[in-house]
Design brief:
Chains A, B: This is LacI family DNA-binding transcriptional regulator. The structure is a homodimer. By secondary structure, chain A is an alpha/beta fold. Chain A has 12 helices and 12 strands. Chain A has 3 domains: 53 residues, lambda repressor-like DNA-binding domains (434 Repressor (Amino-terminal Domain)), CATH 1.10.260; 131 residues, Response regulator (Rossmann fold, 3-Layer(aba) Sandwich), CATH 3.40.50.2300; 133 residues, 3-Layer(aba) Sandwich (Rossmann fold). Chain B binds a DNA duplex through helix 2 and helix 4.
DNA sequence: TTGAAAGCGCTAACAC
DNA sequence: GTGTTAGCGCTTTCAA
């Protein structure tokens, strides 16, 4: 085994010495800035490659007073929706110098605060974060950061700088219209325990508002804690139907539990969508390939990621009033009567 | 709208002036280093909070010559397995000063190289990256970085510094033993097109080796490109059974396509596990809640994340030979005969 | 087209 | 327990 002395990390100076070109010019070459003759350029590039030099962005960032990072703060990676948002962001950032850095809050506002603090201490060029609900310190930090801040997923509420998302209130209303239009009248809702999930809460509010407007009460609600899974969907569906056997429609707060409910109902021999209609929310890919396609609302996740990234990157202007509202898109699937 | 002058970002100096304490002592307080009297401490903290000061880690990192970041490089976030690995990493890093920074390669070695280059330019304290297959430049960079490098998921191959994972060869052999032990003899394999997926390739090799050893040939293979989904699983299952209708076992390279196959086979009325056995790989949560539990191998994702993080954090020593091998765990489910 | 000087905001090392 | 000094590795600015 070779005696592996702990190398001093390489610096610009090493490349400068190896190439016989000043540090400044080496720096120019490595960043493609300013005019450098082809010959010097070549020398520098060769030297850098030979040495295996990797520039130190810490020093660079300090000197230039800016850093090409975009802080992206989301509640969870386990939730199927966020990878989609991230892929939209990456796609749009790919042809810019900006790079996303992901932080995860686990749906906790205080964790969000500390994640933001850590990320802002790297002085990113922009921030993208999920939701409009943040604690006071987080809002203060974001305002003090004086970089673009884009809140995503939701537009129903107060915006710090810019919001890109759908109206979940509207999504709830839209679903109510579809449910009522299809003739269902005894409707139940299944969702996460509310304090944590502001967007589901807004959808429920939109649903109830529209139902009430039509004189149709929401018959039952069932809430759960923790992550979503097919198993949870089965369990909650069984429970709500045990309590209220004559329900004719179940609106789930996400596709995963909706799919679990769907599988369970089919096994029980329910007539879907004839006697019982079902709908979820998000429009995740997972639904393709289930025995029946669950009705759902496409929450425009990839688009949201893209547009947010475009705004942070300066590819498109900040929308008027700071809100960019995308339209939630109802997808009928096979689990709601035509 | 208030005239919002572009503020100069706050510095230590501002806190120093506001509190009447030297910059150095302010720095000490903010980092909990060295002895500072309770009184000064209080003054500093108050001043910092009032101003809304967020330390500049770029400057800090440059001065201290180190940065509490761990680069985590994975192929994809859409793949259900990586969020699990990441949660293991986070869990173990949570009580250390280290923070994970995620980079995504989209299963491309050249993209891996550029992601590594970018991450190493931040001079992280350690690197965790998926797989043992990297291009020459990537290996060179990692070796030159002189920080702990932990390759995860796989241990069948050459290690740069440390590897934490399971043997996929062994997982394939183990599955072969289970399949043969249950009496299946006409076995097919369904998986991703190989060049991209080294670990699936190793499982297939392990499977074939063990089958061959028992004098049982692998009857059919079906490969696909792109992401995994239930729909893809259905499609491939239909195709392989159209070609080879007398197969009595299907081994899938992951649970998602396995689950799709399972759903399809049930709809076709196949007798599972009687006439046809099925197994996937990974042991993802998704499987709970399907009509039948797919047989699978638990790939120890969370444990892998934890152990890798522990090694990077110095909580546990680098294993001998640089390889930490966890045992893949067969889970029979309901789709293989007892 | 190239180079020299100054300094980004913080912390290590040492003095008091 | 607190302060002073020097300097981390780059880029900005300006001069040549």
């Amino acid at each position: 085994m070779p005696q592996r002395t702990k190398r001093r990390p390489l610096t610009l100076r090493d490349v400068s010495e190896a190439s016989g070109v000043s540090e400044m010019t080496v720096s120019r070459v490595l960043r493609n800035r300013g005019d450098v003759s082809a010959a010097t350029r070549e020398k520098v590039l060769t030297a850098a490659k030979t040495l295996g030099y990797v520039p130190n962005k810490i020093a660079g960032g300090l000197a230039s007073q800016h850093v090409n990072l975009v802080a992206v703060v989301i509640p969870s990676l386990a939730n199927l929706v966020f990878p989609d948002v991230l892929s939209g962001i990456s796609a749009e950032l790919d042809d810019t110098p900006l790079q996303p850095v992901i932080g995860v809050t686990n749906y906790s506002l205080s964790r969000e605060e500390s994640v933001l603090y850590d990320m802002l201490s790297w002085r990113p060029s922009g921030v993208i974060l999920a939701g409009l609900e943040h604690n006071r310190s987080s809002r203060a930090m974001l305002e003090a950061a004086s970089v673009p801040v884009v809140e995503i997923m939701d537009i129903d509420g107060d915006v710090i700088d810019t919001a890109v998302g759908i109206s979940h209130l509207e999504a709830g209303r839209q679903m109510a219209a579809e449910i009522l239009g299809a003739g269902y009248r005894r409707i139940g809702f299944i969702g996460t325990h509310m304090p944590e999930d502001h967007r589901a809460k807004k959808r429920l509010a939109g649903l109830e508002e529209a139902l009430q407007h039509a004189g149709v009460p929401l018959v039952a609600r069932e809430f759960y804690q923790g992550g979503s899974s097919l198993a949870k969907g089965r369990e909650l569906t069984e429970r709500i139907l045990a309590r209220e056997p004559d329900l004719d429609f179940l609106y789930y707060s996400n596709d995963m539990i909706g799919a679990g409910g769907l599988l369970w109902c089919r096994e029980q021999g329910f007539d879907i969508p004839g006697k019982l209609g079902l709908a979820g929310f998000n429009g995740v890919d997972l639904l393709e390939g289930l025995p029946m396609r669950l009705a759902t609302t496409d929450a425009r996740r990839v688009d949201i990621g893209r547009r947010a990234a475009r705004i942070v990157a300066g590819k498109e202007p900040r929308p008027e009033q700071g809100k960019l509202s995308l339209a939630p898109h109802f997808m009928p699937g096979d689990t709601i009567r035509k």
